[in-house]
Amino acid sequence: MATTEEIGKRVREAREEMGMTQGDLGRRWGGRSHAAVSDIERGTTRLTASGLAELAQILNKPVTFFYGEKTSAQYLRGGRDEDGAISSRPGAEDFRKFLLQKKKEREGE
Fold first, then answer.
1. Treating both helix axes as pointing N-terminal to C-terminal, what angle do 4-17 and 34-42 enclose, rounded to 10 degrees?
2. Rounded to whole angstroms, what are the CA distances from 97 to 15, 24, 92, 104?
3. Cα gap 93→96, rounded to integer Å
4. N or C terminus of the chain: which is more exposed, having fewer CB within 10 Å?
5. Is the CB of residue 54 less than 8 Å from the CB of residue 37?
6. pLDDT digits (tens, 9 = 90+) for 16-48
7. Using CA of residue 23, residue 54, residue 68, residue 101, what is the dihedral sign?
8. CB–CB of 79/88 below 8 Å?
9. Where are the alpha helices (DSSP H) in 1-109?
């Protein structure tokens, strides 16, 4: 599972790719301050699943982008058929369940 810091780095990468400042992103994300965005990018504030979904939409990235390849591939395997072809793209509710499962696994360790 990606750490809070890794997710923050990916948020910054996506924001910079879009040519936005922290203030720009904060304003587009419900009027949050540049300091709030900075805290997320530095990994000092954890994002909720819904917050990450909102950022993904604003930054034009799939939510799985923020978790990195290993987690993304693990998530997508659940939507593959016997031949390895993607049978259907999992939806937001499926991803929410996936995140809750990962959280339970992490807390159980």
1. 130
2. 26, 31, 9, 11
3. 5
4. C
5. no
6. 999 999 999 999 999 999 999 999 999 999 988
7. positive
8. yes
9. 4-17, 22-28, 34-42, 49-58, 68-77, 92-108
